[in-house]
Amino acid sequence: MALTVGTAGHVDHGKTTLVKALTGKDTDRLPEERARGISIDLGYAPLELPDGRSLSLVDVPGHERFVRTMVAGATGIDLFLLVVDAAEGARPQTHEHLAILRLLGVEQGVVAVTKADAVDSETLELAVEEAQELVPEAQVVAVSGVTGTGLGELRTALGAVAAATVQRRADFSTRLYVDRVFTLQGIGTVVTGTLWSGSIGEGDRLRFEPRGLDVRVRSVQVHDTPVARAEAGQRVAVNLPGVERADVKRGDALVATGAFPRSYRLEVALEELEPIADGARLSVHHGTSRIPGRVVRVGDAHAQLRLAGPVVAARGDRVVLRQETTVGGAVVLDPAPPRRVDAARDLLLDEGEPASIVRALVHAPVRVDELSARALLSGRALEDGLDAVRVVDGWAFSDEWLEQVGADVQERLRARAEASQLDPGLVLAELLPPEPWAGAVLALLPVERRGAKVVLPGAAASLGARAEAAALLERELDTAGLAASKVGDPELARFLEAEGLLVRLGDGFAVGTGAYEVARDLVVTECGAAGEISLARFRDLAGVGRRDAQLLLERMDVDGITRRVGDRRVLRRAARAGG
Ligand SMILES: Nc1nc2c(ncn2[C@@H]2O[C@H](COP(=O)(O)OP(=O)(O)OP(=O)(O)O)[C@@H](O)[C@H]2O)c(=O)[nH]1
Ligand SMILES: [Mg+2]
């Protein structure tokens, strides 16, 4: 498991000197850094430990003007190496860096009281005591970057802490925040960063967010050594052909395509060092980026950060909030929340239970793959969370939502059944909104699918109050014989036809089923003898008026018995064969 250790501490307290003493590498490589004798940008070096473990070391600048850079370096680290000058003791950026480490959740580390060679033993002892008070949970080691005193003990201490540290965020897909971009002659653009999660290998297709630029990885190095695949926690340099240097900058994220949302809002749990007012404007430091933002407070402990630019984050990420100084930090609850704030939802998200998170999110149906693409849950946590909901066809539905929709749907079907006992069903489009999940949810609702219709379980069409009207109509049709009767209730007509009691003709007319069969036999017989039948001939044979004869013949056309040829009809082949 690869771990990264980051320095911290006040300007000039000896961080870079100590890094060089530990690793042999001078990370102050910029001409301006050399000229001014202070660090300006982040420096990187591999650190080999006595137990064979190798760590990545990030050296940060201590000057108060470069705290922003320190934060960018510290977001990717697992352990801290806090450096305190034995003569000076803790100074403002000692405290601020320590606060930032705590806000970022970097709780494991070692304190080096350095420049031990420059003070007397009494002063050194006092400095060590003070450092121990400042960071009670960490081991304090007295060292000198110049004489090398204490370096062995410091390495051992770092090894012990590393052995006890578990890498965070390992669950998510590939994600690297760019801290450097440069061009190498004949090679092209290279970006570097700490790989937060996932892995990066030759040939991988990844995406730069938030700009949405698709790239292919040509080669990968870890601390200047080529590797086939870099793993989470490592310092990685990625060569990207076809990418212009100007296309990418510090703060961008190199991620698995579609695995993380791009958002202008972060829903967070606040950690305040100073009171942060509703509406406060501040800098939001996330990954290696810094984005201006505004705080919308939600309840006592939560907030929505509205950002001036897009951010690519995941649930559980830490951010640092700064104005002139560091005023607080926050833990991301939802990296792409709806704009409308909801205190109850924030509380649920903050509970951290996968089940309550899924419930908070699945207030409406959500695609399962979207839950992971929104960087809210992954791996085990996602599986656990999905146990709390119902999943059909890749859609997740919460029990609460299902209950509500189920009640709603039953209510509508009940009303329909009352209004229309003859046809108590509704088609899907009449029952549910035209959403992509409408088909999937049906299986979870207390309803029955019957053909194209949805009905209440066990519902059957019945005549109900219309039974009397039906009996009347039947008698009327009986008396009318081949003459067509007008039926005032089309639904009833449809129902009785389905029951085999009548045959509907055009214009709302109908005849009894027996009468229709008689009429059909007349036609078939006549056509058998004469080859065809005219309207007038049929009218005479049936003994009905012209209109009724017409309606009967048209129905026979529809039924595929006859076919019109001019003003006559002939039998269709099927009817001929059958008749
Ligand atoms: N005597 C003595 N001098 C030291 C020691 N470590 C650092 N120095 C001196 O202290 C000064 C600052 O050292 P740096 O290592 O650049 O300090 P830094 O913490 O990296 O400073 P920034 O990156 O600008 O915050 C330099 O002049 C170093 O030579 C030490 O152990 N003993
Ligand atoms: Mg330095």
Describe the structure.
By secondary structure, the protein is α+β, with helices and mostly antiparallel strands. It is 33% helix and 30% strand. The protein is built from 19 helices and 34 strands. Strands 11-10-16-7-8-15-12-13 form an eight-stranded antiparallel sheet, with no helix packed on it. Strands 2-3-1-4-5-6 form a six-stranded mixed sheet, with helices on both faces. The longest helix has 21 residues, at 399-419. It binds guanosine-5'-triphosphate (GTP) and magnesium ion. Magnesium ion binds at residues 15-16, 28, 39, 59, 61.
Give the secondary structure arrangement, pairings included.
Layout lengths: L3 E5 L6 H9 L7 H6 L6 E6 L5 E6 L7 H8 L4 E7 L6 H12 L4 E7 L6 H14 L4 E4 L8 H13 L11 E10 L3 E10 L1 E3 L3 E5 L3 E4 L2 E4 L2 E3 L1 E3 L3 E6 L12 E3 L6 E11 L8 E6 L2 E10 L3 E11 L5 E5 L3 E9 L8 H9 L2 H8 L4 E2 H6 L5 H8 L3 E3 L2 E3 L1 H21 L6 E2 H4 L6 H4 L6 E3 L2 E3 L11 H14 L4 E2 L3 H9 L3 E3 L4 E4 H18 L2 E2 H8 L3 H13 L3 E4 L2 E4 L1 H6 L1
Parallel strand pairs: 1-3, 1-4, 4-5, 5-6
Antiparallel strand pairs: 2-3, 7-8, 7-16, 8-15, 9-14, 10-11, 10-16, 12-13, 12-15, 17-20, 17-22, 18-19, 18-21, 19-20, 21-22, 23-25, 24-25, 26-28, 27-28, 29-31, 30-31, 32-34, 33-34
Bound molecules: guanosine-5'-triphosphate and magnesium ion.
Q: How many H/I helices?
A: 19
Instruction: Report the sheet with the most strands, covering strand number, pairing sense and barrel closure.
Output: 8 strands, antiparallel
Tally of DSSP β-strands = 34
> What is the arithmetic mean of pLDDT?
90
- Structural class designation: alpha+beta
Strand content: 25-35%
Radius of gyration over alpha carbons? 39 Å
Shape: elongated
Low-confidence stretches: none
Spatial ordering of strands, largest sheet = 11-10-16-7-8-15-12-13
- Helical residue percent band: 25-40%
Query: Which ions, cofactors or small ligands are bound in this entry?
Result: guanosine-5'-triphosphate, magnesium ion
Quaternary state of this entry equals single chain
- How many angstroms does the end-to-end distance come to? 85 Å
